[in-house]
Amino acid sequence: MNVFTFIFVVCLYALYHLLEAYTDISIERELAVSSVLILTFGIPHGAIDHVLFFKKNTVSQLRFYGVYLGLTLLFLVGWMIEPLWSFVFFLVLSAFHFGESQLNDLKLKRRIMRPVLFLTWGLTLLLTLIYYNTEELIGYTGFFNDTEVFQAVYSHALLFEAFIALNALTGVTLFVFIERASFNWNRLGGELFLLALIHLTFFLFPFIIGFTMYFVVLHSMRVMSHEFEFLKSEDAGFSGRDFLKLLMPYSLLSIFFTVITFWLSWMEVIPVSIPLLALIIISAITLPHAVVMHLFYKQS
What is the pTM of this model? Predict the structure, then answer.
């Protein structure tokens, strides 16, 4: 069991007993706490994309920031033109990114299978989250006119079949890689144990709590550890304080503009509901971040 799985188990145990003791925690409080945690850990884990990129590449800053911001703007336009398909693309993109951050260290004999495994693992994660919280998600999306379109994903007739098929496919794929000596039995046991924990978490807790637990502990903290270890390998004197100094500028800037944008939505200056706005902002940030992290893992 690695340190992130251990932290996740501790959080799972503590939250279960907390919710058993306080059964009337409102959705507003869940959102408030989850938002703070996601802003605190989620935004910083992508705040040094430029640092990681320039450690491995010699592209000009103008070209890097042009492509980075261009991808962000392209996704924003996509949301304006076709929100449903933009949402589907965001789910697939997130699935690949989650799978890559979890399994990037696997040394598979057939490298072409790496993206297949990443995508399969990530889609299994997201479909498990959606399947166990379908009614809750339909309720959330039905509350605002501009989010009702996403019910087509949550209430799809093949959702159960996809949930079963992807979980089975992920398990079989992991066993196949064991048979081909791509990684050892201990790692297989660890991955299956983690998937079981994720199932338990998404089954026990509401959508917001379950997703926040995964995103903060198993994704954001894990990615930041990869980033720190890489920078430490580049400079033996690199410290945790140095890492925090690198994270701060773009993290604070992103948090500031996110809060301002939400406030403008709340004041109805921006004619988009806060839930949809949150999806748009997160996805627009995720696209260039996922591209940079893909290059980072590929070059590491």
Answer: 0.91
